[in-house]
Amino acid sequence: MTTLDTGTEDLLAELDDGVAVITMNRPSRRNAFSDVMLEALGRILAEVEVSDAVGCVVLTGAGGAFSAGGDVKAMADRDSSGGAPVPVDVAIHRQRLSQQATSGKLWRMPKPTIAQVPGPAAGAGLALALACDLRYAADTAIFTTAFGRVAFAGDYGGTWFLTRLVGPAKAKELYYFSERLTAARAEELGLVNAAFAAADLEKEVMDRARRLAQGPSIAYRYMKENLNRAVHGSLEECMDLEVTHHIHTGLTEDHREAAQAFVEKREPRFRGR
Description:
Layout: E1 2-4, E2 11-16, E3 19-24, H1 35-50, E4 56-61, H2 72-81, H3 88-101, H4 103-108, E5 113-117, E6 121-122, H5 124-131, E7 134-138, E8 142-144, H6 158-166, H7 168-177, E9 181-182, H8 183-189, E10 194-196, H9 201-213, H10 217-232, H11 235-249, H12 253-264
Parallel strand pairs: 3-4, 4-5, 5-7, 6-8, 7-10
Antiparallel strand pairs: 1-2, 2-3, 8-9
């Protein structure tokens, strides 16, 4: 276990057997975002994306929650403080950069990403979970878009991710009414891959994350690009991309090792080459 320096106690990170575990750490606020947390998250995601020591990324929250998203209490405090507001264009530009560095990075990085959801995931916190490739939740977790309750339109890519998971009509319903979903209902809708007893969640997630971290990283890189492109590309574009990546991965050492292991009836030993 190696601690990764995030520069703030609002975000913790460690490397565990090839898995980068990143923990949002403001439990008294249900891990609602702070500016320093988001800045640190962007930095650490950029680091682990290019680290040869990291094969999989797990994002989670401390204290039994995933994340409440934006800190509404802090927003109200700022509104009542009478301080000079940030110009709208500046605020938009800053948040665009933050979104691309966080939820955008989780979606695009060429490594598997997993959201481990021990408790409430709301608003932009839910969006971060949706940005990950896989989501596993405690059976006591609650999910909500929340934005309709605080008169926000929504951010951090949540509308895009949710629409592709559940379809436009259900996504609109979930945004308009901001209903609270149990983990069981979230699993039925396809928001989470599986729900586990809270006591078993970390082990279940880490077992899967370590398996991914030890897997054929080059193949995963191109699988993820193929699958992401399939969300919005045409069939012809996706098929052309698939064949390019398929032939390329067939030339890797990992593929040759897997083929030999198949013949020898043993588990392959992947090296990411």
